[in-house]
Specification:
With about 200 residues, this protein is of the alpha/beta class. Helices cover about 25% and strands about 20% of the residues. It has an eight-stranded mixed sheet with strand order 6-3-2-1-7-10-11-12. Strands 4-5 form a two-stranded antiparallel ribbon. Helix 2 runs parallel beside helix 4. It is globular, with a radius of gyration of 16 Å. The relative contact order is 0.18.
């Protein structure tokens, strides 16, 4: 039987996913443009070269305008792929405008596999992380698969800086957290930068 905490988290996930899916096309468009502008002005991103993102789905804030700006700035952009040899892990592959995308059974789009273009997690400068909800202390609620919690465990022992991106409506005062949840050092929304730790030089 599910614990009350698990039920609370599932209910919050469902509520937040409904909230972001209910945004109109024009609200989504405006939000994605504002996010791209704010993110590229954020020092941790502006001063980094290897940046991993994700392609949005399920009402997530659209990352494509941000990706286009990063390419324009000469940044190396990477997208996650689920590791076929270890289905609970993510790989990161270089993403170019001409890269072919394939839809994974879980619903997300991934770059067509090319082992020559892979980058290990610890070689990345910034990882931009999806989330369902975040709170005022940097705690993050994901989709429940645990991909990013596993990936980010121990990130502070590396030079990688994780940053969440979300719609403003995905902020929640205090999330119900589990022991494995990894708080983020920063979250960017269309209208605000939330930062709890700075990126090491």
């Amino acid at each position: 039987m599910d614990s009350p905490l698990h039920q609370q988290r599932q209910a919050l996930r469902q509520h937040m996913r409904c909230l972001r899916r209910s945004l109109s096309e024009s609200q989504q468009f405006d939000a994605s443009q504002q996010l791209a502008e704010h993110a590229t002005l954020f020092t941790a991103i502006a001063q980094s070269q290897r940046i991993a993102l994700f392609l949005s789905m399920d009402g997530e804030i659209n990352t494509r305008p941000l990706i286009a700006r990063l390419w324009h700035m000469g940044k190396s952009v990477y997208l996650p792929r689920i590791d076929p040899a270890q289905s609970s892990s993510l790989l990161f592959q270089r993403y170019y405008p001409q890269t072919q995308l394939i839809k994974h059974p879980l619903g997300m789009f991934e770059p067509e596999a090319n082992s020559d273009e892979l980058c290990s997690f610890t070689e990345l400068d910034v990882v931009i992380v999806p989330l369902v909800a975040f709170d005022s202390t940097g705690q993050r609620l994901g989709m429940g698969g645990g991909f990013y919690d596993r990936l980010l465990a121990g990130w502070q022992e590396t030079s990688v800086f994780p940053i969440g991106v979300a719609h403003d409506c995905q902020h929640h005062d205090k999330l119900p957290i589990e022991a494995w949840d990894i708080p983020l050092p920063a979250v960017i929304t269309p209208n605000k930068l939330w930062q709890w730790q700075k990126k090491e030089a």
